[in-house]
Amino acid sequence: MPGLVVAGAQWGDEGKGRFVDYLASSADMVIRFQGGNNAGHTVVSDNKEYKLHLIPSGILYENKPCLIGNGVVIDPKSLFEEIDSLNERGIKTDNLFVSLRAHLVMPYHILLDGLSEKNLGKSGIGTTQKGIGPCYTDKIARKGIRICDLINEKEFASLLKKNIDEKNQQIVSVYKEKPLDFDEIYEEYSKYASRLKKMAVDTSLMAYKYLEGNKKLLFEGAQGMLLDIDFGTYPYVTSSHPTTGGVYSGIGLGPKAISEVVGVVKSYTTRVGKGPFTTELFGGIGDVIREKGHEYGTTTGRPRRCGWLDLVIINYSKRVNGLTSIALSRMDTLGGIGDVKVCTAYDIDGTITKDYPATVVEIEKAKPIYETFAGWDENLSNIREYKDLPKEARRYIEFIEEYTGIPVDMIGVGPGREECIVRKAYFK
Asked: How many Å apart are CA 30 and CA 39, to the nearest integer?
């Protein structure tokens, strides 16, 4: 098979990192195709926890090439902090490569992100304030600075001067803040240039050669389907495409590069930040799920909003992403909480629908229609065979398969690499 995509089927934080880490053992190359350090993956290996933000989850496998594609925006300070942290823990990163075409998150992006959110007050989007949105804005406005520009000393100085002059007008005139200093930023980023130069390549070409050599490619996104700039709960979205479609432009390969798409689905639903959330639980069982599942953001530490599994969302994700398989995470979290519910449709002003609405106005009106299932009390963490799951847990999973028409081929029963029930060999 050419390539496998691991895509978040909800709002992100579904547990993509742990499944990418598992699948990476059989892949020849792991590729991150979008997002920035506003996302985070937590991977547990040998009882050690690793929090990754820019680096692909396959980095824990020595000598397996890991690529950060052109669709990713890179804060070099964050990248090198992550690299240095891994190196200090004995993880080599010589196998990490970054696209020459990837855009850089600059200090003015971070500053403007924070000032914009502050200025919007209660109307803010709820961004991580990592500068990701403003960086993608400059990319689309053709004002961005790429890694290939950074390592060209004269080009970088010219582009930075132009951007600083423009951004300072906004910082001073609109936000009444002190202007940024060109020399300070130039000096800092020039230091990053020498390190980036050693790892910057044409990742599109590198991936293509692996594809032509019949190698197994594993594509990893950040965030989830409902944060996609086009198909998410706009405007409460990210600034890129975490959907399968983002792979093609985010690394530079054609449709034949992908043969299978694994949708990672949390056995309940969470989201961070603002925006509509139809099955959200306020207090009570929602708080129990949050504490049992340690539902706090990898990047920000913010408590995640928790609710029941919403299959209207999963079917929407199936359609847009072309899901061929489901990896179901956090089944262990639902154990011992009593009956569990699944949303199968919405009631919007008296009209019943199973189709996810396009506007937040409609989504905010939606009332969930639930199916209730008996819960289970058993500890699932030591189970490795599907048949050994409690019958109640199997019924829950089988209902997901029946409703979506997609097989649940991996089931997470704990955070560790080995705490997983695998019902299918993905890379053959």
From this structure: 17
